[in-house]
C-alpha cells in the first residue's frame, strides 16, 4: 500500500477512535441536567467517566500529531483556516477538564453548580463544533493557490455544516446516555434508558438527513455504503436499548459513530481539503503529505507503539468495568 494512503487511513482511524471514546464522555457531560436530581446523582454520572475521560481525550492529541507529521500542508491549512472553531474546542476541553477536578474542592452548592454548568458547556461545544469542522472539510472551503483558507468564520456556519454539528451533538449525547445506563444501576439507569429512547428518535431523523445529504452531494460508492450501514446500525442500537440491552446498544452506537466518520473520510478521499472555489487549489493526499522517508519512519513507530496504546486502553476499561451506584458515593464527600 502507498504510504500516503496508509497514513490517511491511520489518521482516519485515530479520529474514529477519538469520536467513539471521547464522544460518550461528551454525552455524559451533556446529560447532567437531564439525568441528575441531586449532587449525588451528578457525582455518579461524573464517576462513570472519571477514570477514563482524560485517556480518551489523548486520542485527539495523537490524531493531531499524526496529521502534523504525515500531512503538514493539511495541518497548516486546517489549523490556520479553522483556528477560531478549533480554539473554541480547545477552550471548551480545558474548561471541562478543570471542572472535573475543581467541582469537589469546596462544599458549597453554588460552587458545584457553576462547575457543573461548565461541564455541560465544555461537552456540548466540542460535540457540535467537531461536526461543523468535518462537514466543512467534506464540503470544501475556499482556498487560494497557496492552499490558504480565504473565507471567514461565518462561511463555516453554512446549512450543511450546521446539520453536521447537530448530528454529532445528538449522536454523542445518545452515546453518553447509553453509557450511563450501562455503567449505573437503579433509578439513574432507568432514567438513562428512557432518555436514550426519546433522544434516539430525534437522532435517527437528523443523522439520516445528514448522511443522505452527504451521500447525494459529496458521496462516493464506498461512502454511500458506509452511510447506509451507519443508519442500519443506529436503528439496531435504538432497538437494543428499547429492549434493555445496554451493552449491545452501546456497542452498536459506537459502531454507528465509527461508520459515520469513516463515511466522511471515504467521501473526502483522495482529497484532504477540497477547494470549493477552484478544484485546482485542493489539497490531496499527494500534495499535502510528508516525504517518503518521513512516512516510512512514522510507519515503523506506529507499528510498535499503536498496539501497546490499544492494549493499555483496553486494560484500563477492563479494570474499571463495574457499575457505579449511589451507595458508592460517601455522604460526607464533596
TrEMBL record:
Highest taxon of the lineage: Bacteria
Keywords for this protein: Cell membrane, Electron transport, Heme, Iron, Membrane, Metal-binding, Transmembrane, Transmembrane helix, Transport
Gene expressing this chain: cydB
Entry's family note: Belongs to the cytochrome ubiquinol oxidase subunit 2 family.
Bilayer topology annotation: Multi-pass membrane protein
Listed transmembrane segments: 5-21, 74-98, 119-139, 159-183, 195-214, 220-240, 247-269, 297-320
Matching InterPro entries: Cyt-d_oxidase_su2 (IPR003317)
Entries under Pfam families matching the protein: Cyt_bd_oxida_II
Cell membrane keyword on record: yes
Record's subcellular location: Cell membrane
Name by which UniProt lists this protein: Cytochrome d ubiquinol oxidase subunit II
Amino acid at each position: 500500500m502507498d504510504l500516503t494512503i496508509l497514513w490517511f487511513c491511520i489518521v482516519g482511524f485515530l479520529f474514529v477512535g477519538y469520536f467513539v471514546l471521547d464522544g460518550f464522555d461528551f454525552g455524559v457531560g451533556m446529560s447532567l441536567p437531564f439525568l441528575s436530581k441531586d449532587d449525588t446523582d451528578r457525582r455518579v454520572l461524573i464517576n462513570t467517566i472519571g477514570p477514563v475521560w482524560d485517556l480518551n481525550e489523548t486520542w485527539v492529541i495523537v490524531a493531531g500529531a499524526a496529521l502534523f507529521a504525515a500531512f503538514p500542508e493539511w495541518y497548516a491549512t486546517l489549523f490556520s483556516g479553522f483556528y477560531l472553531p478549533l480554539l473554541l474546542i480547545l477552550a471548551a476541553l480545558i474548561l471541562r477538564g478543570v471542572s472535573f477536578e475543581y467541582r469537589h474542592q469546596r462544599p458549597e452548592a453554588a460552587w458545584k453548580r457553576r462547575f457543573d454548568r461548565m461541564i455541560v458547556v465544555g461537552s456540548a461545544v466540542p460535540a457540535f463544533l467537531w461536526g461543523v469542522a468535518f462537514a466543512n472539510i467534506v464540503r470544501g472551503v475556499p482556498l487560494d493557490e497557496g492552499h490558504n483558507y480565504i473565507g471567514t468564520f461565518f462561511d463555516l456556519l453554512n446549512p450543511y455544516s450546521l446539520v453536521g454539528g447537530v448530528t454529532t451533538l445528538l449522536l454523542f449525547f445518545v452515546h453518553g446516555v447509553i453509557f450511563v445506563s450501562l455503567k449505573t444501576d437503579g433509578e439513574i439507569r432507568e432514567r438513562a434508558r428512557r432518555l436514550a429512547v426519546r433522544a434516539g428518535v430525534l437522532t435517527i431523523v437528523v443523522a439520516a438527513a445528514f448522511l443522505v445529504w452527504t451521500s447525494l452531494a459529496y458521496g462516493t460508492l464506498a461512502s454511500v455504503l458506509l452511510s447506509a450501514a451507519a443508519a442500519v446500525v443506529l436503528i439496531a442500537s435504538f432497538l437494543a436499548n428499547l429492549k434493555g440491552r445496554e451493552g449491545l446498544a452501546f456497542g452498536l452506537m459506537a459502531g454507528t459513530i465509527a461508520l459515520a466518520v469513516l463515511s466522511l473520510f471515504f467521501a473526502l478521499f483522495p482529497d484532504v481539503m477540497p477547494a470549493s472555489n477552484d478544484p485546482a487549489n485542493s489539497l490531496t493526499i499527494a500534495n499535502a503529505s510528508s516525504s517518503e522517508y518521513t512516512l516510512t519512519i512514522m510507519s515503523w513507530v506506529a507499528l510498535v507503539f499503536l498496539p501497546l496504546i490499544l492494549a493499555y486502553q483496553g486494560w484500563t476499561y477492563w479494570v474499571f468495568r463495574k457499575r457505579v451506584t449511589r451507595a458508592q458515593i460517601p455522604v460526607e464527600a464533596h
